[in-house]
């Protein structure tokens, strides 16, 4: 007869997932309440214990909604309280994941006074394991990418069309060339696509804020073609010019971002994804720093 009794053994993590929570995010020039979802767990090293005190974890987690801005210095003592609340379970470690959207207004490229809302997905992974506190920040940044190979092929078609239209060495008036370009410069256009960069960095335990905007701004400035919100014709034209002057493969994007973050942040890791308009699949690249050197901690 099969023994249906569960084996008694330690468990790595026990807790809850998907808890709705209201959090206050505060950065320089920014203060807003956001909706977050939280996962919270403690370890269970005692092999015979079951039925942890989930209500205690919930109540402790709810203190993050007390109107105090979320910060690294707020999370470490919270995790310690969670461990202490489970001393009768012999718990020694705790972890917390917070997922939310950083909602902010972004200005148009050209038109003064024009802006629109843009959301950046943010994940915070905090842990207190063996007495060591770690905080990992992950942000998602949308951008546009134009394929260098496609751009070269498009230019070749335009070149061939021009040579076909003007086969001889006869002098050509600039106005004639301009008229031909207005009509035919789009004989072929390079394909571009909405793209995604997911960036992870460690946050120092004593940092006064999470440094969300500093990280996002650096990624967007490095890539040069962040997706836009509200636009008029001048903004769309400026965006087209940026894309035409800023061709990139996934290899280019991932290397640019990692190069910009290395030396500024600890343990940066990058994943870029170009949602191809040519193919039914995506192009992706991953990169991570090979050094822990930090020149400036934010």
TrEMBL record:
One GO BP: tetrahydrofolate biosynthetic process
EC annotation from Swiss-Prot or TrEMBL: 3.5.4.16
Gene Ontology MF term list: GTP cyclohydrolase I activity
Broad class of enzyme this protein falls into: hydrolase
Site positions (May be catalytically important): 147
Catalysed conversion reaction: GTP + H2O = 7,8-dihydroneopterin 3'-triphosphate + formate + H(+)
Pfam family, one: GCHY-1
Keywords, comma-separated and alphabetical: Hydrolase
Pathway in which the depicted protein is active: Cofactor biosynthesis; 7,8-dihydroneopterin triphosphate biosynthesis; 7,8-dihydroneopterin triphosphate from GTP: step 1/1
Free-text function comment from the UniProt entry: Converts GTP to 7,8-dihydroneopterin triphosphate.
Family from the record: Belongs to the GTP cyclohydrolase IV family.
NCBIfam families membership: PRK13674.1-1
Name of the protein described by the UniProt record: GTP cyclohydrolase FolE2
The gene coding this protein: folE2
